[in-house]
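A favour, since you know our structure tokens better than I do. Would you make up a two-line entry for one protein for me to read? Write everything out right here, beneath this request.
=====
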Amino acid sequence: MTARRPTAPRRGLLGHVRAIARAVVEDVDAAIERDPALASKADAVLNSPGLHAIWTYRVAHAMWESGGPLRTPARVLSTVARAVTGVEIHPGATIGRRCFIDHGMGV
């Protein structure tokens, strides 16, 4: 019988909340810096489908990384985001900080 190697503990979904919150703030800042059409942070938050897609991805990605039974709802969330924003991002994809998608339809 072979010995099992210890695996790193998975960080639960709630363990991702602070990181997601920080990323959301950075994403808004990136949008304001890169899109001259945005008049304010409120404008970005309310009217930027690219931001909405990224934020939904960040939650779905945390679910995906948590593994197990959360992977299916992560895919569902990704599908809903695609239907609403037109931007398709697989929850298993890796996207870094300060991401901005402008004109995301069909991306």
